[in-house]
Amino acid sequence: MATFPPGGTPILWLCGAADKIPGMGSQLANYAFYALGAVAACVWAIIIVRAWAPAANRRGGFWELEALMLIIGPATAMIVAFYPPDAPGMLGSVNRALMNVSYALAIGAIGRGLIHPSKKTGGLVAAIALYYLSLILSGIGGAVPGGFTEAYWLTPLLVLAFLLSPGFTLDWFLRMSRLAIRAIVALSLLAATFVPEIAFNLEEKRQVFGIPRVEGITQHPNVFGIIATIGIVLELKNASKGRAFWLLVMGSGLVLAQSSTAYIATLLGVLMISTRFTRRLRLLAALTAAAGAILAIALPEESRKLSALLTEDALTKMLNGRVEIWDAALAGFRQSPWFGYGPSLLDEQYRQLYLPNFDAAAQAHNQWYQSLGGAGIVGAAALIILLLTLASYAFKARVHTSGLSLALLVVLLVRCVSETPLRPVGASTATLMILIVIGVLAAANREINSLPSAEDSDDAHEPAPVRAVIPTRR
Question: Is residue 21 predicted with pLDDT exceeding 90?
Answer without folding.
Answer: no
